[in-house]
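User: Hey, my collaborator sent me this sequence without any context and asked if I could get a structure. I don't really work with proteins. Can you help?
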Amino acid sequence: MIETGVLDRILDQHGRDPANIIAILQDIQAEANWLPREDLRYVCAELSIPLSKMMGLATFYRAFSLEPRGKHIMSVCLGTACHVRGAERIVGAVEREL
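Assistant: No problem. I've predicted the 3D structure and written it out in structure-token form, which is a compact way to encode the shape of the chain:
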């Protein structure tokens, strides 16, 4: 959970405007490396928006995480073109190494 003062600073940077909610979520995630539910509740109360709207945005975009994550995030493309070029082997090698 982020300190209230830090959340207030993030909100102030965005003018406490609900129209800037995506940027606010990005800043919270940059600070905590995920979106703690308590912090989302605080932001919702400060911006007078329903938690359901916030959760809708947070779950819609894959860039946001509602669960704690590590400091360094790794991802491997698993789309069709990547799969054809051996993405599964890369995933296997990374899993074995880590």
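In plain terms: Residues 78 and 86 are 9 Å apart (CA to CA). You can pass these tokens on to your collaborator as they are.
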